[in-house]
Automatic annotation (TrEMBL):
Record InterPro entries: RidA, RutC-like_sf, YjgF/YER057c/UK114
Species for this entry: Spirosoma rhododendri
Family as reported in the entry's similarity comment: Belongs to the RutC family.
Molecular functions per Gene Ontology: deaminase activity
CC terms in the record's Gene Ontology section: cytosol
Protein's name in the database: RidA family protein
Length: 122
């Protein structure tokens, strides 16, 4: 078993005792990404865009891209934002989108409105 910690300075550094991502046997597990320091904090589309950019940077650091994503998990503070999140998210998965769940939660780190994690495979 070959475990590799993946890190890029093109995404926020972890705010706790976890890695941005861990790659093992060709599978990449990316920790939940949030939109830190977004000018449009509170604008769900701007937050989602930043989250997707963060995920893209981590995927790239692991030698992958969105086409490698097989599973994503979306955590949202308000399910009324579902359509707006989907609008942005869908721009990154235009064909053969990954499996996914979307869950409304009471609160997210740093009081953001959306957090997304992914699993990707080479």
């Amino acid at each position: 078993m070959s475990k590799q910690i993946v890190y890029t300075d093109q995404a926020p550094a972890p705010i706790g005792p976890y890695s941005q991502a861990v790659k093992i046997n060709g599978t990449l597990f990316v920790s939940g990404q949030i939109a830190l320091d977004v000018a449009g904090q509170g604008d769900i589309k701007a937050e989602t865009q930043k989250v997707m950019e963060n995920l893209g940077a981590i995927l790239k650091a692991a030698g992958m891209d969105y086409a490698n994503v097989v599973k994503s998990s979306i955590f949202v503070k308000d399910m009324n934002n579902f359509a707006a999140i989907n609008e942005v998210y869908g721009q990154y998965f235009t064909s053969e989108p990954p499996a996914r769940e979307t869950v409304e939660v009471a609160r997210l780190p740093k009081d953001v409105n959306v957090e997304i994690s992914v699993i990707a495979v080479q």
